[in-house]
Amino acid sequence: QVQLVESGGGLVQAGGSLRLSCAASGRTFSTYYVAWSRQAPGKEREFVARIAWSSGSTSYADSVKGRFTISRDNAKKTVYLEMNSLKPEDTAVYYCAGDSSPFRTWSAYGDWGQGTQVTVSS
What we know:
- The chain has 122 residues and is mostly beta strands.
- Helix content is 0%, strand content 52%.
- The chain has strands at residues 2-7, 10-13, 18-26, 33-39, 46-52, 58-60, 68-73, 78-83, 92-99, 111-112, 116-121.
- The chain is globular, with a radius of gyration of 13 Å.
């Protein structure tokens, strides 16, 4: 239904910045929420940030609040995650996901990308 492709990951020093992109294609017109989550080796996937596509309303995990910003470009059908003041603890594979329902939790979203690696060196 909806295809999502993450990009923009890479290696950055602690304190640096990185911007991730999540490009959507397919039948995206009904998407309600798009969320970023991340997973480090040996750990469970955790929520990072969420944006409501229509209103632009955002929410963040406490661990990234004040450092990360989620946004979207309607024309490009792309959601971004701007990451500032990066810490080694931010090292993980970052995923974007979307869903047409405003009631599902992020982990149950129907459309997922393949992820992009972010590595923060100390």
